[in-house]
Structures
1.
Amino acid sequence: MVRMSDTRDGTKTEHLAKGSNTMKQQTVGQPRSRTGLGLFHSRKTLPTRLRAVFWVLCLAPILVLSLALSGCTSLSTTAVDVNLSEAIALSQAGNISSVVLDTGSGTMTMTAAVKSGHFTVTDTTGTSVNVTEGMQLVTNIDSLTLASLQQLGFVLPESYSTNAAASGLSTILLYVLPILLFVGLFYFLFRAGRGAQTQMMGIGRSQARLFTPDKPHITFANVAGADEAKEDLQEIVEFLKNRWKFQSIGATVPKGVLLVGPPGTGKTLLARALAGEAGVPFFSISGSEFVEMFVGVGAARVRDLFNEAKRAAPCIIFIDEIDAVGRQRAGAIPGSHEEREQTLNQILVEMDGFDPNIGVIVLAATNRVDVLDQALLRPGRFDRRVTLDRPDTNGRTAILKIHAAGKAMDKSVDLETIAKETHGFSGADLAELVNEAAILAVRRNKTTIGMKEFEDSIDRVLAGPERKSLRIKPKDRELTAYHEAGHALVAHMLPNIDPVHKISIVARGSMGGYTRLLEEDRYFLTESQFNDTLATFVAGHTAEELIFNEVSTGPHSDLQQATEIARRMVTDYAMSKKMGLRTYGEATVPGYLGIGPQEERNYSEQTAQQIDDEVRRIMDNAHQVAKKILEENRPRLVHITNELLVKETLEGPELEATFTEPLSEADYKQNKDQEKTGVPQPGTKAAGT
């Protein structure tokens, strides 16, 4: 396998680098405090679910206790009520085994003692009741004490007690706690309902985050690799600072600025830098935050956002990933979304409705400008479009300097060299690169970040982590070495290919090896450059075929990328005399969920066959070029392979020496043996492997 850096996006680009300072973040749509604009008050409360659990845990014991007391009371109601005279007679007859005197309620509970069978008593209603052993008898004594009862002739048994305090507490718990239980339950339900109502009432509020200018913030000084973009936005900074200069001569500043560029090129960073440079509030929101499951929520949030911005003017509204709500309106066909379209309509109305001199600037970012609705892009809404591309060499150097600031760098680190090696990297890639280098330095117990860490980090970002535990068979390892040596040798011999920077047969990610070129920034590519690039791509396949008389699955990715380049040469760049000066196929916007053709065919089946024939011809020519170079320099191919098998990685002067140093007799002898037998012979240098 080969991972060549020219397989990344070949267009030369510019980028932003992120500074270390941040602005203070607030949340729009919450109640304001009395301290002024932009300072909001938030009350720290438990989540609704935790509050519910708290109330349940508090009320459950009360409910259980109340039920227990009610049960006890219900048991006591089964006792027989008798008159005091009847109770005195029973005590004198010795038919009472124990007495509990409850002075709180003015009652006396007696336990019957039956000597044989049962006896009959008359209750307070005049009904005769048969009394058995252990049956409870209750009589009303009002305020009488034990002494008073004895004076009346009541004979106390051996077991008797007084329970005034316990009776009073039981009464209180029995009648008060159920009331408290229902009051607490009603209060909990009321609070829960009011919280849900408050949440529903606030769903239409804007979810934008407000960054105030009273804290350290990002400015254009923290942005690198986008000088032209900063110049385009400089006049907006002047307008936000000194509106009267524009109003005095009748000039108006664009209502909206659309930032367009690939992911990782710093669109959001540039928007925040613009706000920091102007010293105004910055409202930030994502396009997806406007859309909810409830109808009308998106439009309500748009209205609330613009109302907040007008009160905070002059300020900036930044809508990230605006294509989430700004896609072309499709009506009621599959893929349309009525709520999203209503939100888009509200954005169009708000941008077209407010006074251009009010001081509210709308910035939006997207990497899919081709899917945006045309009404959103017309003059009067997003008047200006600022394009951000991946940075060139100078831009990458400036970005690396910003990210390297504050880090312990070794004196050997050359950021310009690193910038040349990272062709096609975006600012986000460069930030990851510097961070990976710092992590590697810590892992290796170093106090500074060296050039070695940066080199390894580039390989890690491009190809993935090194797979040290992978055990490769000697034959597969030799096949990989010939494959990568073929790429490197053909690239070195062709005039339109950038210098070879590094070859490695160390497995990384899904690749068994890779060849990396030290690419230069180019803005145009010629047909001869394309042809040499194709020859370099198929060189690995050709080397395997030349040495082993068969090919493996390793060149699959190389052939796939080469075929795509050859097809674009025919269909997009008119580099085929047979097909003429025209393009073939039109790019289309993907359908619902990305389903559907990415290209609309505007040519016949016969033309399609001719295109396939031309692609085949271009690929065959590239194969013949690579085969001729490798056959004429076969001893050099064997020499490079032997060096790779010993050292695994070649770069710098060591790599250059393999292309220029005189070949040894062993290399020539090994080459001749291979030509005779058709089987690779192990070289002397590779014997130790």
Note: DSSP finds 22 helices and 19 strands in the chain.
2.
Amino acid sequence: MVSCISLFLISAVVITLPQNGTRVIDWWLISGGGDPAAGGDYSIESAIGEPVVGTSSGGGFTLTSGFTAGTGSSPILDPEMDVQGGGQTIVDGDTSPSPTDDTDFGSIDLDSGTAMHTFTIENTGDLELNLTDSPKVNISGTHAGDFTVTSLPTSPVAASGGTTTFEITFDPGAAGLREAEVSIANDDLDENPYNFAIQGTGTVVTHTLADFDGDGNTDVSVYRPSNGRWYIEGIGNFKWGYAGDLPVPGDYDGDGTTDIAIFRPSNGKWYVMGSAPASWGATDDIPLQADYTGDGAADKAVLRTSTKRWYIEGMGNTKWYLPGDIPVPCDYDGDGSADIAIFRPSNNNWYVMGESPVGWGQSGDIPVPADYDGDGSCEIAVFRPSNGKWYVEGIGSTTWGITDDIPVPGDYDGDGDTEYAVLRPSNGKWYIKDVITISWYASGDFPLPVRDTNADGDPYQ
């Protein structure tokens, strides 16, 4: 920046110059004519406090430091601050975070992820740069608590290309966009404080139903009780089960892949392929495996209708049931943990633990809660066999199916949201909206994206 200042020099006056770059000073009197007043000492002081001393007498003057007498250009020494992320300059006052300059920390898993970005402060000026606050880097704004300065810069920063670095770690406290602002107080006179916006997105690990190969897609698959085999399209078939066993697929080890597993009511044991048998339940219990703890792995759980209680391994038991209720555990609040919930056909209310009841559905509807919009939380939803429509709270209705179809919602294309899908037992075909139609069924098969809500071996019966 270039400043032109006309000075009338009189005794004992201090003139503060604006910051930065080259100043052009006209030492001669502009108004009134003539020369500066005779006699007296004066000083010209830059805004960072560096005196430029001289004297005036009669028709002229002599500067003893800093400037050359007369009309001309002379430099003032200043620091000049530049902050960079990812090798790119972040302009002071920037309000548009971007992955390019590391001000956008990207999407981070709510339960187990963090992201750390390193930023560089460079001093391109010809005087050392001082970072003047404590701490030297401050974070404020709506979600400031999600961002932590995990390594501070040093001060002063040497002139003419000196650098220092600092680190910020993003650890989201909730799902969705998280925003804050970085502020660095300093003695660069036109960039103090140096501010810029940062952001990141908290995400929830989604447990894709029946994803037996870990590719993020729901697999078209069935369990055949007549021979105890699992038939998974594109993968093969596996013997795992006997007469009376109930299929309970789930990601029990948290590796992102659905495990083949059965619950055996005759002895209350869970048999997960590749793991030792585990006792959790009794003869008439309804298995309700889901990730209730939010640790990324499916938990063994049962609903015991005789006591009206849910028994969840590692969590204890909770009373949440009346006769005739249909259990519908799902992550309704998007916090990464499945919620205990039931649908009550007698009044068509949904009762999610910790939430107010919601009326959604009518007599004969089949509850099909899932994440239909990809926001990380389950929507309350029903399939109505009488008209083949899906009714999803907050989204609307969609026609996809006929009266005798079995709804088999799932994320069949791996895009993060649930597709409308039905299995038509009359022809053995799966109709997956906007994805595929495929034959994969024999009479008596149990479709694995479906939960057996009453432990009778029949989907939704």
Note: The chain has no helices and 40 strands.
